[in-house]
Amino acid sequence: MEIVGGRRFVEIPGNKLHELPPLLVKVAPEVPRLDLVMHMAQNLIEQEELLHSLESMALDPMELDRRRMDLAVNLVDRYMLFIAQWQWGDSIVEWIRQCETTFDTRLELRNVLKHDIWPHAGRSSFVQLLGDKHVETGGVALPKAVGMRLTFRQPPPLRCFSNQFLFYLDSTVGTSAYDKWSAMTGEPVSALPPERFHFDVINMSVS
């Protein structure tokens, strides 16, 4: 085990550059119908009484409609960001599964991963590897993205969320889930040396 700074790196025999499966990710957030998402946002505004304070200001109907639309657009934007994060997390979890298979089939990598971990808990070394390789995510935080995927097997429709989640709670839920997941790694926690691995990141979003 090699220690660089405050991090421990596993030692891999030889000096071969190992090719890992490509990371296939849908970069652009995808929803079945954007008009339905907008409709859900408008319903959420009414149900959560987000307009209550505005209505008490006795605004004229046109101004009230404009602010209602602004709120709906804001909610949709936040939901689309959630979808983008979840898609990255889903792609990473699937990529980790493929990498585990790759490690198991190669003699020099077979003993690098612990085999008493299920299901994929503690595989934060692969998320760290993505960070060490400076994978471009368009601003998506990879730990949070993985945490969102660990929390939601499928992304719920907008109508399932409260405005509190979209405005405040999503910033902590994904990160907390990732921290709990990564903490399941037994000591010592060892990172994968980035100079020993190569993989491609492929954008699968429809142009």
What topology does this entry show?
Blueprint: E1 2-4, E2 7-9, E3 18-19, E4 23-25, H1 34-47, H2 52-55, H3 61-105, H4 124-132, H5 142-151, H6 163-182, E5 197-198, E6 201-203
Parallel strand pairs: 3-5, 4-6
Antiparallel strand pairs: 1-2
As a percent range, the share of strand residues is: 5-15%
Order of helices and strands: EEEEHHHHHHEE
Number of strands: 6
Main sheet properties: 2 strands, antiparallel
Which strand order do you get reading across the main beta sheet?
1-2
Report the structural category: mainly alpha
- Rg over CA atoms, rounded to whole Å, is 21 Å
Explain the overall architecture.
A hairpin with a 2-residue loop joins strand 1 (2-4) and strand 2. This protein has one domain (29-203). Residues 1-5 have low confidence and may be disordered. Helix 5 packs across helix 6. The N and C termini lie far apart (44 Å). It contains six helices and six strands; from the N terminus they run ββββααααααββ. The longest helix is centred in the middle third of the chain and has 45 residues, at 61-105. Helices cover 49% and strands 8% of the residues. The strands form three sheets. A two-stranded antiparallel ribbon has the order 1-2. Strands 3-5 form a two-stranded parallel sheet. A two-stranded parallel ribbon has the order 4-6. The chain has 207 residues and is mainly alpha-helical.
